[in-house]
Amino acid sequence: MTDREFSTNGSLTSHIESLLFVANEPVALRDLAQTLDVPTREINDAVDGLCAAYAGRGLRIQRVNGLIQMVTAPETAPAIERFLGLELSGKLSEAAMETLSIVAYRQPITRPQIDAIRGVNSDSVLRTLLSRGLIEEVGRLDAVGRPILYGTTFEFLQHFGLESLDDLPPLNGIDVKRNT
Q1: pLDDT(88) > 80
Q2: Contact status, residue 140 vs residue 148, Cβ threshold 8 Å
Q3: Whether the predicted model's global pTM rises above the 0.85 cut
Q4: Does the residue 67 lie in any domain?
C-alpha cells in the first residue's frame, strides 16, 4: 500500500489498529509490514504512536520479541472478570506462583533447573501452568537428554498486567540473570 493509498483509505496507524483488533493472537511486526507493504520501521513508529494514544485508556499495545498484541489495560481486569463471570476462577496455588516466578525471572529454564531451585519436583505444577497458557515450551537445551526449556507467554503478561518482562518488579538484593 502506498502513502497515497493510506491517505485516501485511512492512516497507517488506523490500519495497524484494525489488524491488531481482529487478530486473535500476537502478530509479528514483519507480518504487519508485509501485509501493509511498508517498511518494518514505519510499522514500529506507528505502533509507538498507538502506545502513546492508549496511555491512560482501556487498551494497551503489548510487545514481546517482535510480536505485538492489543490487550485490555491491567487496571480494568476486575471489571472485565466480573463482566465475563471469571471472578476467582484464576487463583494460582503458592507452588504455581513460586514456579511461575522462577520461570519469569530465569527464562529460558528447564524443569531440572526449576526443581533444583524449589527443592521439589515441579512436574504437576508445570503441567498446570502450561494448561493455563502462562508458560510455554520455548526450545530445548543443547545438553544430554535435550531437556525442554520453558518461558512465559503473552497470557502471563496479560494475567499480571505487564507490558513486557522488563516490567517485572526487581528482586531486592537478589541478582537475577535471565538465560536469554
Answers
A1: no
A2: yes
A3: no
A4: yes
Per-residue cell: 8: 485516501
Statement to judge: residues 162 and 105 lie in one domain: yes
User: How many of the other CB atoms lie within 10 Å of CB of 69?
Assistant: 18
Q: Which cell goes with 26?
A: 500476537
Write the CATH number for 96.
1.10.10.10
**7 Cβ contact partners less than 8 Å away, ≥ 6 residues apart:** none
Q: Calculate the average pLDDT of the chain.
A: 86
List the one residue out of 135, 170, 132, 133 whose CA is nearest residue 152: 135
Output the pLDDT for position 91.
77
Which residues, at least 6 apart from 129, have a Cβ–Cβ distance to it below 8 Å? 96, 99, 100, 103, 135
> Residue written as cell 520461570?
103
Instruction: Express each pLDDT in 27-58 by its tens digit.
Output: 999 999 999 999 999 999 999 999 999 989 99
